[in-house]
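Quick log. Single chain, no ligands specified.
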Amino acid sequence: MSRSNGVVRDRYAPGTTPVDPAPPPPTRTATAAGPRRPGLRVAAVAVLVGLLVAALVAGVFAALPGRWEGRVGLLALPSGSTGSALISESGVSTSYGEVVTLAMPSIADLVTSPSTLDAVAAAVPGSPAPTELADDVSVELLAGSGVARVSVSAGSPELAARLAEAFAGRVAAADLLAPAGTLRVLDRQATLLEKGPDLTLGVGLGLIAGTLAGLGTAVVLVGRMRARRGDVRRSVLSTLVAAGHGIVPVLSARDPDAGERLLVLARAAGGPVQVAAGSPGVADAVLGLQADLAREPGDRAGGQADESLVLVVDRAADGADLDAVVRSLRPGTRVLAAVVS
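-> predicted structure:
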């Protein structure tokens, strides 16, 4: 930092030249906040994290192994010699329709019974354990048609087909409709359907997870920025207090009212107020604050013992820079405020 005619200049600003004691108000070409845009950086990082998480979730769904489903239909048919009604051993007349209505729902219980699961698992090579097989088999009854459909899912089409055919054979052999009717297997070979991963569901979950991850990242980054901003302000204040300048206001250059606050402090100081850099990288902020203070009329000639100074410090700067600047101030210079850019 140097002085000419009592004016304090930013020693870190390139190409500094002697300044007249009463320069005209400079044109403000940059805001006090400088070129940095931390909000944009936070948004960019949050969006990037969200996109990565969404892509990861969707990619996991796309990479899941495919599943195959084997289906076999069973058709209920009346016995040829029974007629429309049967006489049971107790002498009660039962119609074929009543037998079908009562017996067909029991197919679901039959296929998931431990004895059926154990028999199918033992009969089909490569079958999963009976406990796992119970989650892969289902029965669908087509209302009013006397048709039941047994479906089994597996990791390969061959295994799905063999399991479905084995379950259908066990149900047909159980003869649930006897003596009123029989269950006949409709298909000698199971019908196969590929049940791949649900990409629509994967994309939807990916978008939800990406949005939550982006919002969480933004919250964490904003919290860290605020904590770091508070640490910088405390560091600046402690440096000034240690140098004997007492407790002074520490403002943020990103505050849109920072210039107005400095004007109020300048009026209260009652003397010339200069702006100087307390660390590298704050030239734009210095120019912006000088433009704000230039609007205040009054004697701006330097050299008085009651001269006041505003120090501008970069929030990422090393504290040693500010300490060196503070210690090099001319005796009698009063630090009016510090601004963290």
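Residues 199-242 form the longest helix (44 residues).
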